What does this fold into?
Amino acid sequence: MLDPKTHLVKQLRIHLKPMFVQRAAPDVKTTEVIIDYSQINPGATFADGKFAWTPPEGARDVAAARQPAESEAKTALEGKSAPAFQLTSLEGKTVSLADLKGQVVVLDFWASWCPPCIESLPHMGKLYEQKRDDGVKVFAINVAEDKAAVEAFLKSKNIDIPVLLDKDGSVARKYNATSIPQTVVIGKDGTVKNVFACFGKDTLTKVREAIDSANKAG
It folds into this structure.
C-alpha cells in the first residue's frame, strides 16, 4: 500500500501460507506479516554505518546451507524409481508420470514467491522449447499456489512452459523438494537420474548434460 501524498510504501503485507504449505504444513489457513510505516521521511539522511551488519557468531552462508538439502534429495531419489504422481495442468489436463514412461521427463519444482525460482524459470522455459522436439517432457510443478496467481505470474514474465499444479505440496514432499527450485531428471525407464537443488550459474548446463545422458541411455 502506498501513501497517497508521498507515493512511498505505507504498509507491506507478506503472505506466508505458500511457504508453510511447501514445508509440509498444508493445514495452515492463512498467515501473513503486516508492516505499517507510521512515519515517512523521504528526505532523511543517515550516518555512515547506519545499516552496517555483522553476522553473529555461528551464522552460516545461505548457499552452504542449501547443500545438505540437495544431498538429502539426491540420496533419497537418484537411482531409484521416480515417485508416482498425477497432477492437473493449467489447461485442466491430467498428467500422470506412469503415462510418460519411455520418455525423458524433467520436473522443475517452483513457486512465484521464491526469488531463485523467478530467476530459473525463464531458462527452464527455453529448455522446454529446445527439447520438446527431442521427445523430452519438461514440466514446471508449482508448489501450493492458486491457479489464477500462477497464470498471472507466467503472463507477466512471458514464460511458456507446461505447468502442473501441486495444490497441497504432496508431490514436492515425495520428491524431497525442501529447497526450491529443484530440478529432477527422470530416465526413460522411470528411474531418477539426477537431482539439482536451487539455481546457480552452471545449473542449466548440468541439467542439459543430464538430459542428453538420459536420452542416450535409452
Residues 115-131 form the longest helix (17 residues). The chain has a mean pLDDT of 85. The two ends are 54 Å apart (CA to CA). The chain has six helices and nine strands.
